[in-house]
Amino acid sequence: MKKRPQKTRGYVHGFTRDEQDRLYRQARFLEPRVHEGMPFRRTKNLVEIGCGVGAQTDILLRRHPEMHVTGVDASAPNLARAKAHLGKLPWAKGRYALHAGDAGSLDFDADTFDGAFLCWILEHVADPMLVLSEARRVLRPGSPIVVTEVQNATFFLEPYSPHTLTYWKAFNEHQIALRGDPFVGAKLGNLLQAVGYRDIEVAVKPIHLDNRAPGERAEFLEYWTELLLSGAAGLSEAGKVSERVVEGMKVELQRVAHDPDAVFFYAFVQARAVVL
Question: What mean pLDDT do residues 113-139 have?
Fold first, then answer.
């Protein structure tokens, strides 16, 4: 009998239409950093665990024209949006399937897939090891897995922005209260090793933007502002931040965006491994 997975208590960003739209923008914006050099050249039948609105599915199908993607997600509204989005893409026709399901208890036989992709999902689950173990179960021997995750302790802004840092601390603590893990990226190597993967490679992906790349810095600050504010309603409703902090953060982010010497730093983590 499969272990009953722990349940998260919610999603820090919420499930609004605006949040769904943001996920498409995020996927496109981060595509070069997330998808470069994927080890899926021989993968024909990939499982995407936590496919959400199909934003990453879109990119996988476009970048790997011989691949079929099976997406799994627990959110019915997100799956409905994914179906509508992918159904409009000529390159996706007949090359994907979407399933409602729990990432910790996949409804597939062992050795079904020859590749797995997980992106920004383990930060939102209560038991990342169980999810990775289920991915290993449904993968054939020799199949690659790629896991991309946040490492929220790395965030830095110049000029100093105290309201933003207060908000960020509350954001991460709220995610922990929801049984997620905003620091799971640093743990990927241990997690993959613990459930039996081999050839584990963990790469820290830094985003360090200063006066050397002012255009890219401006774009990233705009993206990051949207990401931060996407959690404001939930944080306020949960009593984690005050209106003063949120408004103060907005002012600070505008100031940083217009500062000629601004610095943005953040690093996420991408792990790659192979099933024994």
Answer: 98
Per-residue pLDDT tens digits for 167-223: 999 999 999 999 999 999 999 999 999 999 999 999 999 999 999 999 999 999 999
**Burial class for 54, CB neighbours closer than 10 Å (0-12, 13-18, 19+):** buried
Q: How far apart are CA 154 and CA 266, in angstroms?
A: 5
Give every CB contact of residue 218 below 8 A, 6+ residues apart in sequence: 257
Cα 213 to Cα 50, 131, 160, 261, 266, distances in angstroms:
33, 38, 20, 11, 15
Q: How confident is the model at residue 10 (pLDDT cuts 50, 70, 90)?
A: low
Q: What is the mean pLDDT of residues 81-89?
A: 98
Dist. CA 205–CA 3, nearest whole Å: 33
Nearest to 271, CA basis, from 39, 32, 23: 39
Question: In terms of C-beta density within 10 A (0-12 exposed, 13-18 middle, 19 or more buried), how is residue 87 classed?
Answer: exposed
pTM of the complete model: 0.94
| Calpha distance 143→196 (Å, rounded) | 13
The ranges assigned to domains in the chain are: 17-275
How many whole angstroms separate alpha carbon 275 and alpha carbon 140? 7
Under a CB-based contact definition with an 8 Å cutoff, are residues 19 and 239 in contact?
A: no
- Protein fold of 17-275: Rossmann fold (3.40.50)
DSSP-derived secondary structure for 52-113 = TTSHHHHHHHHH-TT-EEEEEES-HHHHHHHHHHHTT-GGGTTSEEEEE-BTTB-SS-TT-B
Interval 27-62: pLDDT, tens: 999 999 999 999 999 999 999 999 999 999 999 999
C-alpha distances in Å from residue 214, one per residue of 201, 226, 228, 252, 266: 32, 19, 21, 18, 16
